Amino acid sequence: MRMTCLAALALAGAASPLAAATHEVAAGDGAQTRLQEALILAQPGDEVVLGAGRFAIGDGLSLDVDRVTVRGAGMDATILDFTGQAGSGEGLLVTSDGVTLRDFAIENPKGDGIKSKGADDIVYHRVRVTWTGGPLATNGAYGIYPVESTNVLIDGVQVSGASDAGIYVGQSRKITVRNSVAQANVAGIEIENSRDALVEANLVTRNTGGILVFDLPSLPVMGGGNVLVRDNLVVDNDTPNFAPPGNIVAGVRRGTGIMVMANDAVTVEQNTIMGNPTSGVMVVAYPLAFEDARYNPYPRKVAIGPNRVSGNGTEPQIGGGDQLVAAFGGALPPVMWDGLGEGAITVHPSMTGWTLALTAQGQGPDDATPAPATFAAYVDAVDRGAVGSSPELDARLK
To answer: Is position 96 within any domain?
Structure first.
């Protein structure tokens, strides 16, 4: 039987996906309800477009639909203001894949700024998270916070005031963090228990510590490594530590430039590292007691390539710092190693360093016998073809 043209067209239309929709949300009365409604009603492929203005938000927002774009009029034009937030959760929680977040700001969330959990193929582009009261222990922990995800692109974001990390990526893989500004946080950028990460072309300044590459015990995802840190400006990280007591970053010393702790295969190269009072680069073992039998607390295959360094190590926040500075002629060498980990570190001949010469995991500066360090010849540590997010995510930046 021959199908009529009308029936064929109807069948084809039923089999085709609906055209993507645009959900426009303006600032003003009822903005929170209208915005959350748009995030719920959006279908895969839709855009939620936020108008210019200040949106007063009194509770956390959430998105659980794949392939949705949330787009504002610019990080200084569209502002989601959480100053009156009643709860203590994140400003925006994303739990779906293929999401793009761009061109808006979040201010003063009680908890984290934007958290994405189990959200693969996610893009953060030109998003700002700010705690406007400056560095305070009562600020939320994280500004930009993707966790347990694969394929993460963070490009052109700005974060200030986070009481843990401004830009934090945890328990994830295939990560790019670039072209971003992290200022006046405890940690500027932190890559934790994650693999295949590229951190490049960022400005990291006025934090307690600039860029941290950590691996910690007793987390669902273990074994961080294959991280490339290059072409960043890591300057004047001199803010006193304001993390709440008990937080792991509460132990980060004021004036830490780049710190690699208990990680495997990390290369640090072509960065400008200046004016960090404790150290330009630190390579250390995990210092605390732990019970996780899976965990390796030592750094392995950390490569410190050529970097532009000056003015670091002039006021180290460690016991006997003044005497150490005097012994080294006014400033500590730019690379500090705690001395732990077999094959822990190789260093380019253009970089000089010193060691605490610790002999056992769990020791601290009081157990140190500081001395100039002799390092193994530089060997690149990373698989460069594996680091970074996939090129397909770049298409969403247009």
So the answer is: no
Q: Is residue 7 helix, strand or coil?
A: helix
H-helix or E-strand spanning residue 188: strand 187-192
* E strand or H helix at 271: none
Please state the domain count of the chain: 1
Residue with tokens 């273990």: 222
Q: Is residue 105 part of a domain?
A: no
User: For residue 382, what are the CA distances in angstroms to 103, 226, 237, 303?
Assistant: 33, 5, 26, 9
Domain of 237 in residue numbering reads as: 131-392
Contacts of 187 (CB under 8 A, 6+ apart): 162, 164, 165, 166, 168, 207, 208, 209, 210, 212, 249, 252
pTM for this one? 0.94
Domain membership flag for residue 108? no
Share of the chain above pLDDT 90, in %: 91
Beta strands in 201-320 (DSSP E): 203-205, 209-214, 225-230, 233-235, 256-261, 264-269, 272-274, 279-284, 300-304, 308-310
